[in-house]
Amino acid sequence: ASHVRQRKDPYFGDGQKKKDWHNKEAIRRDSERVGNGEQGKPYPMTDAERVDQAYRENGFNIFVSDKISLNRSLPDIRHPNCKNKLYLEKLPNTSVIIPFHNEGWSSLLRTVHSVLNRSPPELIAEVVLVDDFSDREHLKKRLEDYMAQFPNVRILRTKKREGLIRTRMLGASVAIGDVITFLDSHCEANVNWLPPLLDRIARNRKTIVCPMIDVIDHDHFGYETQAGDAMRGAFDWEMYYKRIPIPPELQKLDPSDPFESPVMAGGLFAVDRKWFWELGGYDAGLEIWGGEQYEISFKVWMCGGRMEDIPCSRVGHIYRKYVPYKVPTGVSLAR
C-alpha cells in the first residue's frame, strides 16, 4: 500500500516536488483519431501491397508505412499503475540522437513526429538526426527542407560510411542536452515515454535507462508488446542477446516500477551526457552493430553505475525482416 500513499503526496520520499507529466489534451486528441494504422492497428493489406520490392530497400514494407499518418495514434499498453505515477517536477532535458542510413522517408519522419508529439517540449533540448552517408535522394535537400519547420531538429552528416556506433558517437559529441537519448530511425515513442526515463537519471546520474521496446510489425505495422513483455536482458555463450524472466527475488511489488537489467537490447536508451563520456562512450573501433550493447552494459555495471528497464516508458520499434544494406567495410556479419 505504500506506493499508493506515495502517489497522493507530491513530496514523497526525498522532499522533491513531483508532478503528473501526462499531456491529457494530446491523449484525448489521439484517442479520437481514425484511419489506416491508427491506434496501432494493423494495416489491411491487399496482395499487391505485399510486394517484395518494398522490403528490399528497407527491410520492412515501406508502401504500408507511407499509407499511415506520420502522427498516428498508438494504443496505451502500459501497466495501469503508470497512469497515476508522478515524476520529479524538475527534470533534466535531453538531446534525442537518431542515427540513420538510407532510412525510408515515412518511417524516419514518423520517428521524429512521435518524439515531438509525445514529449513535453521543455524536456527536448534538440533532436539530432545523424546521417551515416546515405545516398537516397529523399534524405538530402528534401529532408533538410522538411525539418526546417522544426527549430529544434538538426541534421548532421558523416563524410564517409562510419557504421552505427561511430554515427551515434558523432551525434553524442555535439549534443547539448543534459541527457542523451538514443533511438533507432524506425521507432514510435508512446504516451508519456520520456519523463519516466529522465526521472531515474535525475535521481542517480549514473543510471542508464531503457524503455520497454514494443514491436511494430514489419509487414502491416500493427503495434504490440514483445512476447513476455517485461524481461531482463542477457546473452548466451555465443554472445547472442536473450531476454530472460525476472527472477522472483527481484520482482517488484508494483510491476510498473523500474527493474535492474544486466544487459540492454542496444538501440534505445537514455544516459546522462557527462556520465556517457566518463564511461568512455562507445569503442570507436566497433564497425557494425551488435556488440556495443554489451560494451556499454558491462562498463556501467563495472564502474559504479546501474542499468534499469522502465516499464512505464514504451517505444515501438520495427524489427526488420532483414538488414537491407551492406556494413561499412563490406565485412560479413558472421565471423
TrEMBL record:
Classification via Gene3D superfamilies: Spore Coat Polysaccharide Biosynthesis Protein SpsA, Chain A
Residue numbers spanned by region Disordered: 1-47
An annotated GO cellular component: membrane
Cofactors (names): Mn(2+)
GO molecular function, one term: polypeptide N-acetylgalactosaminyltransferase activity
Record Pfam families: Glycos_transf_2 (PF00535)
Membrane topology term: Single-pass membrane protein; Single-pass type II membrane protein
Any GO BP: protein O-linked glycosylation
InterPro entries: GalNAc-T, Glyco_trans_2-like, Nucleotide-diphossugar_trans
Swiss-Prot/TrEMBL keywords: Disulfide bond, Manganese, Membrane, Signal-anchor, Transferase, Transmembrane, Transmembrane helix
Record's subcellular location: Endomembrane system; Membrane
Comp. bias intervals (Basic and acidic residues): 7-35
Glycosyltransferase 2-like domain location: 95-275
Recorded family membership: Belongs to the glycosyltransferase 2 family. GalNAc-T subfamily.
The protein, known as: GLT10 acetylgalactosaminyltransferase
Organism: Thinocorus orbignyianus
Gene: Galnt10
